[in-house]
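Input.
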Amino acid sequence: MKITIPESINDIALHQFQKYDLLLKRTDLTDEQFNVRKIEIFTGLDRKRIPLLSQKDYSEILILIDKALEQTTEFQPTFKIKDVEFGFIPNFDKITAGEYRDLTLYSQDVAEMHKLMAVLFRPIKSKVANNYKIVEYSGTEKRAEVMKYMPLSIVNGALVFFSNLANELIEYTQKYTTEEQAKANTPATTLKNGGGMRQFLKCVKVKFGSWIKF
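Output.
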């Protein structure tokens, strides 16, 4: 029986993590049923064949899966799926309203994380050394399904990086707005700028925090 076991978080695809997230929400399974489905998700082994594993292999596979899931990674701005190289948004100063809207929209659930990644990463159209340009944003319909096959390590790093970047953006927006109000001698008001981004950060930490390490 040939089994492919993830040796690191880089060997886990986003769609596997999404299936595992659904599994974690189930309350109708015994521990054994849960573990069988867990092995099925991360190894591709047919559920009916898992009971044929030796107890030693069964236990070791579960340990290796947990170790892979618990690994943390650094941010990587580019990666490949087959022959297509994708790049992280290189300049958030030029982010469009459509990108911003979808970043906050698709941060609500792990089930839509592939759509979130399709906003953050797009095919590279030109590259010189470490500098690159990505294709213009036109929604997620064309590439969201492809993003289900990106490594979880890339997802992990991107979420941490973007979380830090978004925090800086919120702080800058608040500071700028306060300064402008002071110049105009206007009464201080409750700052609403960055509200959508705050919601993004909240959802990321609540939904993904147990697996995506901040």
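The radius of gyration is 20 Å.
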